[in-house]
Target: DUF2782 domain-containing protein
Amino acid sequence: MRRKLIVLLMAIATPVAAQQTPKLEPIPEPPPMPAGASDPAQEPQVTILKRGQDTVQEYRIGGRLYMIKVTPPHGVPYYLIDHEGKGVMTRQDVMPTLAVPMWVIKSW
Model:
């Protein structure tokens, strides 16, 4: 008898709980971007070239080459990265998971 009563109460309560809709609030508008945040000179420029059968992507910031991604037709892509900004590229077979920030404070 007790089980039948519990099942009956659950059967009555389930549709009532399903009909209640949550109160939704509109999403606020995002704040405007700061004035100097979208400087096109600081955006990375990507140039895609076809050298033989390889696809080469050159990444530049401010006209300075800092990374090259080489994708062979049958293989895993590898990266040539200029870590110190001296024009010396070192090969990395996979992108690093941790990149330490290296900002230029002042250059002349």
